[in-house]
Design a protein that fits this description.
single chain; about 375 residues; alpha/beta; GMP Synthetase, Chain A, domain 3; Rossmann fold; nine-stranded mixed β-sheet; three-stranded mixed β-sheet; about 35% helix; binds adenosine-5'-triphosphate; nucleotide-binding; hydrolase; metal-binding; ATP binding
């Protein structure tokens, strides 16, 4: 194996599109030789059917061609041997759940609701895209096993994760790394898994899916107070919760149950989102279709039950464009960021990600004298 330093420097600027690391670090560059202005380079793909083959090919050629001493690029693509793949897997994979390590800097936020249909998944998809558009590295786990809808909301209804042996690489949509139970269920069949299987599935997502370094990991939780909520708190003890409700008093009461599970799990409820708060009519007036006050009431009650501050993060109006954005797979915060509903979601995304983080469990790197 021969590796010319100047060529390696150029190749180090090329990232594997799925693993998001320089190809030089991933052991993908087998040889790189410069002879009479011609760069002869062999790059190894992780698997033969690599969906990113042409992207890698184009990026490598462009990076090499940019060197002044290179007049021609001769690129050969090969495939890693099982032993090379095993080495790569070892170098990438942590034995445990990376996000549950006390020194992890990833904020993990579960989005919960009392009942279905309050817009939890739509808001989760929009929040994830808002955070990614703000330059954060965002992962999203669709853990709503009975109603997985995140891939559709993000425009990748049929996306399949790439598998490198036992390692799973999540598809990326609008800059968000997404994994959904729906991606592992053939033909959109309903999932009838019970507690232990759900726990195992979530555990597998958290250990086997290679998200890489993330600033935020969002989880779209199933509505209610089911097994997944308990599993999340066990597998991700530092995770936080946001509770979504509509303004309706009855909905807020059901949501209170979902939020107060945090008393048992020890999770922090970082806020309430009220969705479908009002509808702006053509004459400019507003109509409170589902009543008023549910979000503020829920936040107040959760504060009492949990004994911690629970702010109402925002109120998102009904907006047909939000629904249409979900159907089209382009969330409203990306297609119409100026709309009042998107503006609310963008503000909430910033409020959630710019909070100072607690120092509990973090290594501060200082030694007492
Ligand atoms: N602010 C809004 N304005 C207009 N339509 C909305 C709004 N929020 C959600 N919707 C629509 O309401 C419906 C339910 O939303 P969504 O699927 O996100 O709810 P959910 O709480 O995740 O439900 P489930 O948990 O049952 O999957 C969808 O058709 C969605 O497009």
């Amino acid at each position: 194996m021969s590796l010319a330093p100047r060529l390696l420097e150029a190749l180090a600027t090329v990232q594997d599109p799925e693993l998001r690391r320089p190809i030089t670090e991933l052991g993908m560059v087998e040889s790189a030789v410069l002879a009479d202005g011609t760069a002869h380079v062999k790059v190894l793909l992780t698997i033969a059917a690599c969906p990113m083959r042409s992207t890698i090919e184009a990026d490598v050629s462009a990076a090499l061609a940019a060197l002044p001493e290179v007049t021609e690029v001769k690129l050969e693509l090969g495939v890693m041997s099982p032993a090379q793949r095993a080495e790569l897997r070892e170098s990438l994979k942590s034995r445990s759940i990376p996000f549950s390590d006390p020194s992890s800097l990833t904020r993990v936020i579960g989005i919960a609701s009392g009942k279905g249909g309050v817009g939890k998944s739509s808001l989760t998809a929009n929040l994830a895209c808002a955070m990614a558009a703000d330059g954060l590295r965002v992962g999203l786990i669709d853990a709503d096993v009975h109603g997985f809808s995140i891939p559709g909301l993000l425009g990748i209804p049929n996306a399949q994760p790439t598998r490198v042996d036992e390692m799973i690489l999540p598809p990326v949509a609008h800059g968000v790394k997404v994994i959904s139970i729906g991606m592992f269920v053939p033909d959109n069949k309903p999932v009838i898994w019970r507690g232990p299987m759900l726990h195992r599935a979530l555990e597998q997502f958290l250990t086997d899916v290679h998200f890489g370094d993330l600033d935020v990991l969002l989880l779209d939780l199933p509505p209610g107070t089911g097994d997944i909520a308990i599993s999340v708190s066990q597998l991700l003890p530092g995770s936080e919760l946001v509770v979504v409700t509509t303004p309706q008093a009855a909905a807020a009461q059901v949501a209170e149950r979902a939020g107060s599970i945090a008393v048992q799990t020890g999770q922090k409820v970082v806020g309430v989102i009220e969705n479908m708060s009002w509808l702006v009519l053509p004459d400019g007036s507003t109509m409170e279709v589902f009543g008023a006050g549910g979000g503020a009431e829920l936040a107040k009650r959760l504060e009492l039950v949990l004994g911690t501050e629970v702010p109402l993060l925002g109120q998102v109006p009904l907006d047909p464009m939000l629904r249409a954005g979900g159907d089209a797979g382009v969330p409203l915060v990306l297609s119409h960021p100026e709309s009042p509903a998107a503006a609310q979601i963008l503000a909430m995304s910033r409020a959630l990600t710019r909070r100072p983080r607690g120092l509990a469990g973090l290594k501060l790197g200082v030694t007492p004298v």
